[in-house]
């Protein structure tokens, strides 16, 4: 199943997507709620809606403004170095243990919302990433059982402010500027994708300019390993988000000159079988102007 959480004139709802059309699941059953948490915490709810979906009215996907798949994720964990060629282009050694960092809630936004280049830096970079949404929580999850803990897969653009990322051995500042991490718009359940979402083409671009192009089969640590590794040190909870790292081709590694995102551009991240996460880029001063006007 492919889901879209989004806003219409009737409010925020969860939609089941079929091609260019969608069915409002929240209208069919209010217990679904206004984000994916209703379906995540009640696994049988989707099955109970199947017959209703077939007979329900459709609305165009284009009429829905995307919202975050999970409105308030408890934890957002990100892989920093998970594709060999990306590690090499950044000048790092291949680590024996995954490079992990966390993002805060103010750093993320829904697909389609502006990605904000901060006033203190012009080094806003893009990172195409697969992201998983935890369905069933747990601690000390085995690799063998790890995929049982995945609700679905979505798209993440791990927008990074590179000079602030390099200010410290910990990457927190560069990875947590407000409104730099786009998520969505679609979430696809595991039964509609290859096991562990492996073997999917992943690409970033601005217009016709292809910035990154790789395949999720090239990840060093796959979904099973990442879930098992993360759950060694923390209890995963339903609705947590885990980003799986980016392939080579990021802006700071472009030669002879870095390729930073600029206001006025729209950056797209596409993952085969899931969809496209598009984000217009704006300058922070323009973002503040819009807030003041509202």
CATH superfamily of the largest domain: Fumarylacetoacetase-like, C-terminal domain
**Overall average residue pLDDT:** 95
- If classified by CATH, what would the architecture of the largest domain be? Alpha-Beta Complex
β-strand amount: 25-35%
Label the overall shape.
globular
Unreliable residue runs: none
Structural class: alpha+beta
InterPro entries: FAH (IPR051121), Fumarylacetoacetase-like_C (IPR011234), Fumarylacetoacetase_C_sf (IPR036663)
Family: Belongs to the FAH family.
Pfam families: FAA_hydrolase
EC number: 4.3.2.3
Description:
There is one protein chain. The protein is of the alpha+beta class. The chain has two domains: 65 residues, no CATH class; 218 residues, Fumarylacetoacetase-like, C-terminal domain (Fumarylacetoacetate hydrolase, domain 2, Alpha-Beta Complex), CATH 3.90.850.10. 17% of the residues lie in helices and 32% in strands. It is built from seven helices and 20 strands. The strands form four sheets. A seven-stranded mixed beta sheet has the order 7-6-18-11-12-14-8, with no helix packed on it. Strand 1 and strand 2 form a beta hairpin. 43% of the residues are buried. The mean pLDDT is 95.
